[in-house]
């Protein structure tokens, strides 16, 4: 077999290999729809608007960038250093980075920070919190844990020419790999991480 022919067969062989990985993996769009969709919710209640706020005190929270494995509604599972699968039956209602952005904004607002919804585009906050959601899934290497990693960048105030950088990582053990249990653990981990980010931003 020539290298050219092997290259043509590689996607087929890959699909066949993944299909044989057991019930953990879910590939393609022909699987039955999930019984329920998974969501993230902030534990803290977003503060109500309380009149005029100086623009210099405001903050915008951007939707985090994500790697390719998180550009999906599926829930990634790290099974080895170089192997990733998706949890069967698990499907987010919306991409996790968009849900995480709202959870983060709600947590910051509840801590007394005036957060501007930057999705409208009319007004930008004096400071901007951006970042990269590098991990948001289940890791079954050894003890099963969910892991959330957010590399944050805090810029501003505008014109100050400064930026602060910090990585946040939160893990939580899971006793079951059922989608609802894994999602609940990820929700708790995301809320813990958001609280850490809020303390950093306020400090």
Low-pLDDT ranges: 1-23, 25-29
Helix share, percent: 25-40%
Number of strands: 7
Query: What is the highest CATH level, the class?
Result: Alpha Beta
Tell me the Rg in angstroms. 20 Å
Question: What CATH architecture label applies?
Answer: 3-Layer(aba) Sandwich
Task: Characterize the main sheet.
Answer: 7 strands, mixed
CATH homologous superfamily annotation: ABC-type transport auxiliary lipoprotein component
List the helices and strands and how they pair.
Blueprint: H1 3-19, E1 59-61, E2 74-80, E3 83-91, H2 96-110, E4 115-116, E5 127-139, E6 145-155, E7 163-173, H3 179-202
Parallel strand pairs: 1-4, 1-5, 2-5
Antiparallel strand pairs: 2-3, 5-6, 6-7
Helix pairs in contact: 2-3
Description of the molecule:
The protein is α/β, with parallel strands linked by helices and 203 residues long. The protein has one domain (40-45, 55-202): 3-Layer(aba) Sandwich (Rossmann fold). The protein contains three helices and seven strands. Strands 1, 2, 3, 4, 5, 6 and 7 form a seven-stranded mixed beta sheet that branches. A hairpin with a 2-residue loop joins strand 2 and strand 3. Helix 2 packs across helix 3. The N and C termini lie far apart (62 Å). Mean pLDDT is 84; it is low at 1-23 and 25-29.
Descriptive terms for the model:
single chain; 203 residues; alpha/beta; Rossmann fold; seven-stranded mixed β-sheet; 3 helices; 28% helix; 28% strand; elongated; disordered N terminus
């Amino acid at each position: 077999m020539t290298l050219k022919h092997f290259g043509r067969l590689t996607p087929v062989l890959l699909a066949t290999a993944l299909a044989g990985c057991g019930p953990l993996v879910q590939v393609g769009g022909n699987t039955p729809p999930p019984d329920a969709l998974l969501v993230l919710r902030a534990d803290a209640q977003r503060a109500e608007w309380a009149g005029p706020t100086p623009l210099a005190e405001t903050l915008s929270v951007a939707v985090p960038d994500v790697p390719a494995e998180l550009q999906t509604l599926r829930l990634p599972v790290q099974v080895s250093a170089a192997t990733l699968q998706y949890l069967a039956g698990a499907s987010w209602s919306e991409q996790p980075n968009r849900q995480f952005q709202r959870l983060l904004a709600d947590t910051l607002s509840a801590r007394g920070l005036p957060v501007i919804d930057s999705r409208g585009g009319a007004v930008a906050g004096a400071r901007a919190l951006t970042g990269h959601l590098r991990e948001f899934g289940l890791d079954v290497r050894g003890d099963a844990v969910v892991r959330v990693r957010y590399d944050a960048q805090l810029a501003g105030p505008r014109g100050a020419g400064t930026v602060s950088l910090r990585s946040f990582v939160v893990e939580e053990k899971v006793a079951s790999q059922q989608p609802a249990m894994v999602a609940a653990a990820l929700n708790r981990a995301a809320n813990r991480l958001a609280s850490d980010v809020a303390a950093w931003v306020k400090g």
